[in-house]
Specification:
Helix content: 55-70%
Strand content: under 5%
Number of strands: 0
Shape: globular
Structural class: mainly alpha
Distance between the termini: 17 Å
Length: 430
């Protein structure tokens, strides 16, 4: 919770005095749980005051042993403080050590690469005697980073559970080296081939698309079509017959194909085709959507259908035709597809959000209120997605609906402010 006080002077007064008060109280606390929360608060106050070194001393000291509110709480706080203090050797050594324990933690790869290149830019070298840093051995060259990532991939091959982190780390390192115009000399491999191998290993996972899309900028624009064809070639689809599509035989193959279709749109390959070809793609996507419903016959109403993304992509293509070429029939088709999709996936929030957007753009506000209500937005969501109603409600003369949406958000903020005040009071009186 944020620290809020009645005035800026009172806030400054309390923030200055509370750390000293806490130092007096903490040694007398015998209940570990209570002590943990007080140390956490002490850390937050020091960080708020910009006293990063003092906060680091607390985290690394005996009091830091009580920070057990989350997994690796102490290490995460140390990492954040090292970064703020620009202690790149410690940052590097700690992230490296944590990656040796868990080579699938992405946040530590980012910190590892950040620190390595900071040290390279500063021409840092380790001391001739003693430890490299407070956290141990430091990697301070590109060669060391390349070797470290390759070792993580080698270790992953021995793991019983496939880990995505090492493979994505290699792509991230290639991108950073490309930005420095020095990728070729380290022979880390062709990004296109690495992404292809990644797809073969993780293509049936819903996360594959979101993983790969971060690195598609590594592909030359001339290679995009070839890359998509290469991916399609390894998906186990049924043999196509005259007038019929090659369809997936199971959910894994469907997920792989969905990933490729999403990448096709992301790479802009659908934007280069004409109206007739787009309509053919929409028809194909909807046929695949209908076929995919066979895999979801046992799904509950609260679960999404496996093929819902086919319907969404078809709708987005139709919306492109409407917004870019003024094809009015396309928007009515998109509404039909989305309403039909909702009958099969009543809990699909993306269908509902897209319907809200389209209805509002058409000036049809009445169905929007019911759709928004069915989203069952809670707490901060009234602020983050409530604008979907309020941005159009006023211009469409729907003041009651706009007022209701704003009141939902206000109630959340008022209750949250009261909770924060009560929390601060309980800490002050303890």
């Amino acid at each position: 919770a944020a620290l809020t006080f009645s005035s800026s002077s009172q806030q400054k007064h309390k923030l200055l005095l509370f750390p000293d008060t806490l130092l007096v109280l903490v040694p007398n606390v015998s209940v570990s749980k209570s002590l943990s929360s007080k140390v956490e608060l002490y850390y937050m106050i020091l960080e708020r005051l910009g006293k990063y070194q003092e906060a680091l001393d607390v985290v690394r000291g005996k009091l830091g042993e009580k920070l057990t509110s989350e997994l690796q709480s102490r290490e995460n706080k140390c990492m954040a403080l090292y970064k703020k203090l620009c202690k790149w050797p410690e940052c590097n050594a700690l992230s490296r050590r944590l990656l040796l324990k868990n080579s699938d933690d992405w946040q530590f790869y980012i910190m590892y690469f950040d620190s390595v290149f900071q040290l390279i830019d500063k021409s840092w070298t380790p001391p001739e005697e003693g430890e490299h840093s407070l956290e141990g051995e430091v990697h301070y060259s590109t060669e060391q980073a390349v070797k470290f990532v390759e070792e993580r991939i080698t270790e992953e091959a021995k793991s019983s559970r496939p880990l995505r982190g090492p493979y994505l780390a290699k792509l991230e390192l290639i991108r950073r080296l490309q930005h420095r115009d020095c990728n070729d000399q380290y022979k880390l491999g062709d990004p296109e081939e690495l992404m292809f191998q990644y797809f073969k290993k993780f293509g049936d996972k819903p996360c594959c698309f979101t993983d790969i899309k971060v690195f598609v900028d590594l592909l030359p624009s001339t290679q995009c079509t070839k890359f998509i064809r290469q991916l399609l070639a390894v998906i186990p689809l049924s043999a196509p017959t005259e007038g019929k599509l090659a369809l997936p035989a199971d959910i894994k193959a469907l997920q792989q194909h969905l990933c490729v279709v999403q990448l096709t749109r992301l790479l802009g390959l659908y934007h280069t085709i004409d109206k007739k070809q787009k309509l053919n793609v929409v028809q194909e996507l909807m046929l695949r959507y209908q076929h995919g419903l066979e895999f979801g016959k046992s799904c509950l109403k609260t679960e999404l259908q496996f093929s819902d993304y086919y319907c969404l992509l078809a709708v987005h293509l139709l919306l492109d035709m409407w917004l870019e070429a003024g094809e009015e029939i396309a928007v009515w088709q998109s509404l039909t597809l989305l309403e039909g999709g909702l009958t099969r996936s009543p809990s699909n929030a993306q269908f509902k959000l897209l319907l809200i957007r389209i209805y509002c753009m058409l000036g049809a506000f009445e169905p929007v209120v019911e759709l928004y209500s069915s989203l069952d937005a809670k707490h901060i969501q009234h602020d983050t997605i409530g604008y979907l109603l309020t941005r159009y409600a006023e211009s469409l003369g729907q003041y009651a609906a706009a007022s209701q949406s704003c009141n939902f958000a206000l109630r959340f903020f008022h209750s949250n402010q009261k909770d924060v005040s009560d929390t601060n009071f309980s800490h002050d009186s303890s």
